[in-house]
Amino acid sequence: MTIRKDFLWGGATSANQYEGGYNEDGRGISSMDVVPSGKNRSDIIRGNISDFSIGEDLYYPTHKAVDFYHHYEEDIALFAEMGFKAYRLSISWTRIFPNGDEETPNEAGLKFYENVFKECKKYNIQPIVTISHFDVPLYLVEKIGSWKNREMIDYYLKLCKVLFERYKDYVEYWLPFNEINMILHAPFMAAGLTFKGGDNEEQIKYQAAHHELIASSLATKMAKEINPDNKIGSMFAAGSAYPYSCNPKDVWEALKVDQENYFFVDIQSRGKYPNYALKEFKRKGIDLVMHDEDKQLLSEYPVDFISFSYYNSRCIASKDSDAKLTDGNLFATAKNPYLEASEWGWPIDPLGLRITLNEVYDRYQKPMIIVENGLGAIDTINEDGQIKDDYRIQYLSDHIKAIKSAIEEDGVDLFGYTAWAACDIVSASSGEMKKRYGFIYVDADDKESFTRLKKDSFYWYKKVIQSNGDIL
Question: Which residues form the active site (predicted)?
Answer without folding.
Answer: 372 (nucleophile)
